[in-house]
Design brief:
The structure is a single chain. This protein is mainly alpha-helical and 436 residues long. The protein is 61% helix and 3% strand. The chain is built from 18 helices and four strands. The strands form two sheets. The chain has a two-stranded parallel sheet with strand order 1-2. Helix 4 runs antiparallel to helix 7 and helix 4 packs parallel to helix 10. The two termini are 27 Å apart.
């Protein structure tokens, strides 16, 4: 993490000249004028670009782009035999890390803002002395004094909400910038982060991923192209799936609580003259999931859905690559471990928003899809994605053969869709996941 918060950086020798100070005050003015929501996304973008730029990020040239595009074309041909979904025909790009940051910011807004709004509102309410259980009341002050302080603290509340947006913007920017040095494509976290119809691979990160594996570069490129293309086919032919996953993230986020007691202690430690203390407060673990049946069910739904996506991709890619790539087995195991453990940047993100986008039962899900394929062929396997109500549940992951033999599957491998509503379900909260 950068030593200098909110994107402020001194000169090469650590000194602050007049131009540096003028730039710092200009940026401070931008921070305090932010009115766009619980996360200052302008700041997040700037910080992410700064973090990404700490390591070389050359523009993608023809020498990098052409091998990836050739791998993509071959991957699409192999998937035609391994998957019943036809090619989605996405626009394929080779991105630098900076391009990945710019292209994925809208998706991060959907994922982060439900949690950020809760924290920023809690911070503003706490510091204004409002709320049914605030520190001013616990000090034993008369109600009239508490109300008077709350009235005077209105401007302070808005300032602290603005600073809260800056804190989240800084931390989210750090996480996104770090992730940009690790991701291999646009679907690495299990949810497509690029615009619909866009597929992408990152040559610089692919080269870093392959270093030390002892596997030829062309095999690595082809295997990763297969994974990206398989994700693209799945989400294109199950158009409800992306909103289903984002909705599951939102449902989980609604059950995350802010540890108010810890927040109060952190507020007392914040030094207004030391912005770094604000960053430390944000990363100190004040987000906790509620231990309720509803929250546990939301988490299970999310983890199961992520596992089903990754398990399907894992099986389809293995079916496409096993007969052609000598290193397919080794690459499959490497990717499984990578998705199961997550990298440092993913861990930073999970500590920030209280959520790990990780398929904990990937191997069980892959076994389930393999059982469906064996009993119902490709069309029967892909038919499960026709409707969200057909998706296997957590219990089905314990009994893959039982799910594959379920009589709801017709003799032609299709599911009985009678009684299922084809219209998308309305969101539980119309404002959930909206972007300012």
């Amino acid at each position: 993490m950068s030593e200098f918060p909110f994107g402020f950086n001194p000169g090469p020798g650590g000194e602050q000249g007049p131009a540096d100070l003028a730039a710092a005050f200009t940026q401070l003015g931008r921070l305090l004028s932010w009115q766009g929501g619980p996360v200052n996304w302008d700041l997040a973008r700037d910080v992410a670009r700064q973090v990404s730029a700490q390591s070389p990020d050359p523009s993608v040239g023809t020498a990098d782009r052409e091998p990836l595009l050739e791998a993509w074309r071959l991957a699409e041909l192999w998937l035609d035999d391994a998957c019943a979904f036809p090619s989605a025909g996405p626009r394929v790009s080779a991105w630098s890390r900076a391009e990945w940051i710019e292209a994925t910011i809208p998706a991060w807004q959907e994922l982060v803002e439900p949690v950020a709004a809760k924290v920023v509102d809690s911070l503003g309410t706490l510091l204004s002395g409002q709320g049914s259980d605030n520190p001013l009341q616990r000090l034993g002050l008369p109600v009239e004094q508490v109300q008077a302080f709350a009235a005077m603290a209105g401007p302070l509340q808005q300032v602290m909400r603005t600073l809260g947006g800056a804190m989240f913007g800084t931390q989210v920017g750090q996480a996104i910038g770090s992730l940009s040095t690790e991701v291999l494509g646009s679907t690495d976290v299990g949810i497509p982060l690029a615009a619909p119809g866009t597929a992408a691979l990152l040559p610089a990160n692919i080269a870093a991923f392959g270093a030390g594996l002892g596997i030829p570069d062309d095999q690595i490129r082809l295997y990763l192209a297969l994974r990206e293309a398989a994700h693209q086919r799945l989400f294109a032919h199950a158009p409800w799936l992306r909103s289903h996953l984002v909705g599951a993230v939102g449902a989980y986020a609604r059950g995350i609580t802010v540890d108010v007691a810890r927040l109060e202690g952190l507020v007392g430690q914040i030094d207004p003259a030391d912005p770094a203390s604000l960053q430390e407060a944000m990363s100190s673990g004040m987000l906790e999931p509620e231990d309720t049946p509803e929250q546990r069910a939301a988490l299970q739904r999310l983890e199961t859905a992520l596992a089903l996506v990754e398990g399907w991709v894992d099986e389809v890619v293995d079916g496409a690559a096993a007969a052609h790539l000598p290193s397919a087995g080794a690459l499959r195991e490497t990717m499984r471990r990578r998705r199961a453990t997550g990298g440092p940047a993913e861990q930073t993100f999970s500590s920030l928003v209280g959520l790990e986008l990780r398929p904990r039962r990937l191997r069980d899900a892959a076994a389930l899809w393999r059982s469906v394929l064996e009993q119902r062929c490709q069309s029967g396997r892909e038919a499960v994605w026709a409707h969200p109500d057909l998706l296997p549940g957590a219990d089905d992951l314990d009994d893959p053969a039982g799910f594959a033999a379920r009589p709801a599957l017709g003799g032609d491998g299709t599911w009985d869709l009678a009684g299922l509503d084809d219209s998308p379900a309305p969101p539980e909260d119309p404002e959930e996941g909206t972007r300012q």
